[in-house]
Amino acid sequence: MSVHDITLTVNGRKVRLTVKSNELLLNVLRDRLLLTGAKYGCGIGECGACTVLHGRECVLSCFIPAVCADGWEITTAEGLSKDGKLSVVQQAYVDKAAIQCGFCTPGMVIASTALLYENPEPDEAEIKDYFRGNYCRCTGYAAMIEAVKVAAMRMKERGCDDEEL
Amino acid sequence: MQILSDSLIGAVTPRTDAPAKAAGRIQFTSDINIPGMMYGAILRSPHPHAEIVSIDTSAAEAMGAVCLTYEDINPVLYNERSVSIPSATYRDRTVLPKKARHCGEPVATVAADTQELAFKALKELKVTYNILEPVFDPMEAMKDGAPELYDTIYLGDEAVKIHNNIGVIRNIDEGDCDAGFKAADRIFEHHFELERIYHCQLETKGAVCKPEPDGSITVWATAQSIHANRQLLGRILGLPLSKINVKKLPFGGSFGSSIQVNTVTPICASLAMKAGRPVKLITSREEDFYDHHKYPAIFDVKLGVSNDGRLTAAHVKAVVDFGAHQIQPMAFLGCTAGWFASLYKYDGNIRFDGIAVYTNKTPCCAMQGYGNPQINFAIESMVDIICEEMGFDPIDFRLKNYRGPGEEFWGQGPTIRSIIKSSGVEESLVEGREVFGFDERTAPSSKNGDIRRGIGLARGFHTSGTAGPKEGEVIDYSSATIKINEDGSVDLITPVTDHGGGTCDALKKIAAEVLQVPLEMIGLSPAETMNTGYDVCTHATRGVYCGGAAVYHVAMKVKDKLLETAGRLMAEHAYNLEVIRDDRLGQGVVQVKGYPLKKMTVGEIARQAQIMSWGTIAYTDSYRQRNCPPCFTTHFVEAEVNLKTGVISIPRVLIYGDCGTAVNPDLVKGQLIGSFNRGLGYTLYERLAYDGRGRLTNSGLMTDYKMPTISEMPSVEDIDVRICHTYEPSGPFGAKGIGEAALASVQAAIANAVYNAIGIRFFKLPITPEAVLKELKKKARER
């Protein structure tokens, strides 16, 4: 098995790693960097629990060999909150009771953040379209839709730029 | 149990674990990492029925793996589910079997330094199987000459011979059914079939086990009952319970999937003990798909009805294919009979003939409702048929016949019964009729076009817990410890687990309300078997009602001690004192009743008690509820059927939940909406199909299993959720449960709405587009 030296920027911090070619980004994040926010739910890109940000886009970390992520800027759910303060999206999830068991939540808040980067004022149809790849077995999704809308509204009211998402 | 106007009970307060969950910082089992840990993996049977002749582990061991087979793990005969009393529990399995009885059954296990090495070692295990003929169909399994899964199993300590794969027969007869049917003017009989489905809780089952230097073991596992896990591990590992510590963890959804001690837990613990090192074993999604399923059911239902709209008798025959091991189909049949018996009065004439059959399929376990959604679909569809054919109003008919206040409710089969004291049925049906515009619905025959809409309703319930005035087949009590700290803050230690619905938040609120502490001053302590009394399990919608009652009971004792201590400090009789929450001071204050100038903060009292060496103001106890009140639900659904494609969608739904006092109203609504989503799946999409060789046709893939996603839900503004205005006198602050009730009537409500749209009655779930198109064609031919 060949090994590769890669550099990732994870939640704003640069890390250098030597990875095997069969090592997945999800396993590197969880087992080696101990960032367990991204979850294993299916291992083959079906459920969305492993979703992380690559720049401003959602990617499924269980699907990506770590070697392919060389040079990427990655943000996990842990990295969305800064100095112990939840991001606007995370806070909206808390306030709208959009969290039950919490296992899909890290992936959901990441996906919501990416959606708001792309579309700062999504309507319900656009939110639904964006979340088709993220399963939640607990909530029935309604509270999540409301959370995304609340996050969008708060961003607009505060005149925040999307760096603060 | 008076609720004050500024009460925490009923107030919307963001759940306390939500920030950590949002930030991805809550640790689930799979997030536990221990230095020096090994990784476990399980070899599973590729055959549905095969004797294991030998397992050669030498090549795997040569790679450095630790291996275990049936020869290595203590062959304790057990039932994974231990909420029933031992004499009502069939035992048929060991951790690793000598004979595999379903595809995916664990056969051997390894642990190695890396996951990669563990999987490589797994491939080196050489198993010689003697392949046996399998049987998959329950009707075939009962025939003479069918392959037999078992010869002898045990009921409690008594050996039981198994004939024709019949695991359990449970017949219940009350009143006089024959006379009841004779008294009927019309008799309705229908056959219903419900498929196996899968929990698909987002976190797959797993365990992390760490042997400790003193010979004990610490266990992190996906578990609805930490104490059940500890007790079974004690028997399997041959250790005193004081040497087994199972930690309480959040888990990624459950829906019943961990009501039992999952096989992965004793496997992981045995690996860790053999290796003398920590072992982590997290199952894959595909493995989880083969681990446990929801019980399928086949029902033949017969109802007698009088011309004046009274149900006079009911007879249900049930056949249940529960798979390769008993995870209590006996209790399942009893419960199913109970839900059926408690839905309507039937003039007291009921008969239930239940039979549960072994097949070479995945064992079935609890899944939100334990027979309730199954039998509710049958009975509530029948009620719709009766009303349609005899011209009764579906709401009036239900109001006339339902079992309500003053009547008996079976909370967990025939041995657990209590009297109904609170009911939101009338409120939900009468108000719902107006709110949903139920009376504006038109007959199926008056509709045309390719897109047709219909309105349907169904009502249901579930129990709150499994306790009655008399102890029955099921164990039910809970425990709690509460202590007041020297700054007025409070620690709550509870063994009650939280599936994600917010049970533990409710428990915190109950303690905070009794002791009048601000919510942020009460902490939920990490809990484990070592520092908690017994709690049977978070199942049967008992978390808030039973777990909460234990917390309430202990909090009241702590309050007594607090007032008594304050009395000594303030030179007042305790009965002259009261404690009230002072949000300005950020803690509770004890004051003289009617003379609030004389007061001390709770923190001062606790600190003085410490300085005077009087002791900590704390209490520990167990508590058993003595009722099993039903929490009722009603679903009004509008369904839209596309006649060209057969696709059904749900434009609108009105949901009523009767949970007594809603401790956390937003979380109650979350339960009701989440359950509606799962009910959509159960009714329209989900089905575990087998390929004839014992394999699942979805191959362990979630997308091929077809659960509802966000796209199938009605729009947010078309989901109307209402909480009934009821108060359960036996519950903590008037609360009962909601969890499982939330699913009970979804299926029938959707099916009844589909009937109203296209005039076709579906007796099998799921109602797939293919099924709709087939029935439409049949109907067109008949015309």
Commentary on this structure:
The complex is a heterodimer of chains A (165) and B (783). Chain A is an alpha+beta fold. Chain A folds into two domains: 3-80, Beta-grasp domain (Ubiquitin-like (UB roll)); 88-164, DNA polymerase, domain 1, CATH 1.10.150.120. In chain A, 35% of the residues lie in helices and 16% in strands. Chain A has helices spanning 25-32, 77-80, 88-95, 105-118, 124-130, 142-158; strands at 3-10, 13-20, 51-54, 57-60, 73-75. In chain A, strands 2-1-5-3-4 form a five-stranded mixed beta sheet. In chain A, strand 3 (51-54) and strand 4 (57-60) form a beta hairpin. Chain B is α+β, with helices and mostly antiparallel strands and 783 residues long. Helix content of chain B is 28%, strand content 26%. Chain B is built from 20 helices and 33 strands. The model of chain B has no long low-confidence stretch (mean pLDDT 97).
Features:
heterodimer; A: 165 residues; alpha+beta; Ubiquitin-like (UB roll); 2 domains; 5 strands; 35% helix; globular; B: 783 residues; Aldehyde Oxidoreductase, domain 4; 28% helix; 26% strand
Which fold name corresponds to the CATH topology of the domain at 410-468 and 627-782 in chain B? Aldehyde Oxidoreductase, domain 4
How would a crystallographer describe the biggest sheet of chain A? Answer: 5 strands, mixed
User: From the helix content, strand content and strand pairing of chain B, which structural class follows?
Assistant: alpha+beta
Strand content of chain A: 15-25%
**CATH superfamily of the largest domain in chain A, called what?**
Beta-grasp domain
Q: Tally of extended strands of chain A?
A: 5
Strand content of chain B: 25-35%
What gap, in angstroms, lies between the N and C termini of chain B?
62 Å
Q: Using CB atoms under 8 Å apart, which protein chain pair has the greatest interface?
A: A-B, 58 and 59 residues
Radius of gyration of chain B: 27 Å
Q: Stretches of chain B where pLDDT falls below 50 for ≥5 residues?
A: none
CATH class of the domain at 410-468 and 627-782 in chain B: Alpha Beta
CATH topology of the largest domain in chain A: Ubiquitin-like (UB roll)
Going across the biggest sheet of chain B, name each strand in turn.
3-6-1-15-12-13-14
Low-confidence stretches of chain A: none
